[in-house]
Amino acid sequence: MELLTAISTLLLLVTFASTGMSQRQCSQPNLFYAHERNCDMFYKCENGTLREGLCPDGLVFDDKQAPDVLRCDLPFDIDCSYRAALQPPISSEHCPRLYGMYAHETDCGRFWQCVEGHPFAFYCPEGLAYNEYSAHCDWPDLVENCDSESMLRFRCPQPTDQEIQEFGDPRYPFPGDCRKHYVCILTPDGSRQPRLLACDPGLVFNPQTSSCDDPENVPGCQGYYNNLDARRLRELFGR
């Protein structure tokens, strides 16, 4: 991804300043150490003196690298719990900081990637929502402040005991597309929330069996793949 490449080229853009610890002698030159308070700061041994360095706003010092490697990166896989302080943010529209990946303000399925304070919009795959804490697209019911029913425009009916016994998490057809269907999973609060799924290529959803099936077995879906050979599709995709 070009934007990620752009971030990578800027990982080494850091500023250095003298620190009160500058009189400490470094054992070797060009070694880097985590700052004791700030996750986006670090120490560098330079000319025998320990100096503070600062990552670009929104990036943090990666202390998992070897001491002779300087890398400032997005914070999602870096433990900042013991050095949680950060520099004051430099904010702009859609970008709380100069760099980072941030949830869209009104659409769970979109997110912003910010590079030098410039926002670039991206979409999650259909049916998924952007999880700002993991920087991944996730099931909407697992994303804070995302209403899966509103996002997917589907409200789960109350299943009968027989449906639960036969099918577990009930499944329902998606209007207008034979491959897609909803599954209503039971959440920790006792409610059922929808997730959007799709059958493997060559198959369609069969509401009678609540499973994916051959198109010829599902009324109204026999011609779903038109001139494509459904059996050949299943073979190509290993099904």
TrEMBL record:
Transmembrane segments: none
Keywords: Chitin-binding, Disulfide bond, Glycoprotein, Repeat, Signal
SMART domains cross-referenced by the UniProt entry: ChtBD2
Cellular compartments per GO CC: extracellular region
Keyword set includes Cell cycle: no
One MF term in the entry's GO annotations: chitin binding
Residues annotated as domain Chitin-binding type-2: 23-82, 92-148, 153-223
Superkingdom of the source species: Eukaryota
InterPro entries named in the record: Chitin-bd_dom, Chitin-bd_dom_sf, Chitin_bind-dev_reg
First and last residue of the signal peptide: 1-22
PANTHER family per record: CHITIN BINDING PERITROPHIN-A, CHITIN-BINDING TYPE-2 DOMAIN-CONTAINING PROTEIN-RELATED
Protein name: Chondroitin proteoglycan 2
Naturally occurring in which organism (per UniProt): Stegodyphus mimosarum
